[in-house]
Amino acid sequence: MQVLITELKAEETTRNGLAARLGRYLGEGRFSENLSVSLEVQGEETLTPAEEQGLFHIVREALNNVVKHAQAANAQVRLHLCEPFWIEVEDWGQGFELQQAGRTGRVGLLSMSERASEIGWAVQIRTSPGAGTYVRVEKLPQEVRQG
């Protein structure tokens, strides 16, 4: 059943595009009224269904982290649908010590990296206590993905 649900959601992303799916997700009021999340989209090129699905899950996980840990009032998702392809999630919350989070085995951060790797993208995270968190996921050049 879970596989069927996942496949149906992948079809939804492909049919309507990642930008539309993110817009619907952000507009559904999933976040507390204390958090405002904006979406900025540049470009109109399409991604593969696997890329769209993986990126959607990465953004969802990043925003879940904002809700659970950041104590932020604002966050922004930026999607760049032209060369070079990337997506960013940024908040202006409390931030955290990245090396310490890596040692404690935070599943969400690991999950984002694994999903990105599966689709040939790479995750970069910048954060520090008191400075918010910036997550950028970039499409790797073809030669790096094949190497």
Characterise this structure.
The longest helix has 22 residues, at 49-70. The model has no long low-confidence stretch (mean pLDDT 87). The protein starts with a helix and ends with a helix. With 147 residues, it is an alpha+beta fold. The chain has a five-stranded mixed β-sheet, covered by helices on one side. The radius of gyration is 15 Å and the shape is globular. The protein contains six helices and five strands; from the N terminus they run ααβαββααββα.
Distance between the termini: 35 Å
Strand proportion, as a percent range, falls in 15-25%
- What's the mean pLDDT score? 87
The gross shape turns out to be: globular
Unreliable parts: none
| Helical residues, percent | 40-55%
What structural class do you assign from the helix and strand content?
alpha+beta
Order of helices and strands: HHEHEEHHEEH
User: Going across the major beta sheet, what is the strand order?
Assistant: 1-2-3-5-4
The main pleated sheet reads as: 5 strands, mixed
Per DSSP, the total helix count is 6
Count of β-strands: 5
Radius of gyration: 15 Å
